[in-house]
Automatic annotation (TrEMBL):
InterPro entries: MetalPrtase_cat_dom_sf_prd, YbeY. Gene3D superfamilies: Metalloproteases ('zincins'), catalytic domain. GO terms for biological process: rRNA processing. Its cofactor is Zn(2+). It comes from the Bacteria. Belongs to the endoribonuclease YbeY family. It comes from Candidatus Woesebacteria bacterium RIFCSPHIGHO2_12_FULL_41_24. One of its GO terms (molecular function) is metalloendopeptidase activity. This is rRNA maturation RNase YbeY. Keywords: Endonuclease, Hydrolase, Metal-binding, Nuclease, Zinc. The keyword 4Fe-4S does not apply.
Length: 132
């Protein structure tokens, strides 16, 4: 079973159950069937900028413009030791809620739809599927 934990930095009006369902579906469709855990966080512009500056080495001007960041566990510098009987940790998906709102406003989509698309995009990265 794939467990998806959803955290919200603020009271963003997106249902965690929908995010969980999208992430689980994407991972299962891409062959991940083992017991595993994924973390998803909806954060503000300041937090996503902090993460992009810290982990991607970006400037402050660029860092806050990310709609989504994914941190697959497979991309850490050294191998992680999993304890027997524990779930496989796949990684984290960080969604910038303000950027999702901006995208929704310019695309004519609902904010919830954009957030779910970003969750799907992040889940694909955790499954090892990357874009150019």
């Amino acid at each position: 079973m794939i467990k998806v934990n959803v955290y919200k930095q603020s009271n963003y009006p997106i249902k965690a159950t929908k995010i969980k369902a999208v992430v689980q579906l994407v991972l299962e469709k891409n062959g991940i069937m083992s017991d595993s855990t994924v973390e998803v966080a909806l954060v503000g512009r300041k937090k996503i900028a902090e993460l992009a500056m810290s982990y991607l080495g970006e400037s402050e001007q660029v860092a806050g413009e990310h709609p989504v960041l994914a941190f697959p566990d497979s991309e850490i510098d050294q191998p992680f030791i999993y304890q027997p009987g524990h779930d496989l940790y796949l990684g984290e998906i960080i969604i910038g809620y303000p950027k999702a709102v901006e995208t929704a406003n310019t695309s004519g989509k609902l904010v919830e739809q954009v957030v779910l698309e970003l969750a799907e995009h992040g889940a694909l990265h955790l499954a090892g599927i990357h874009h150019d």
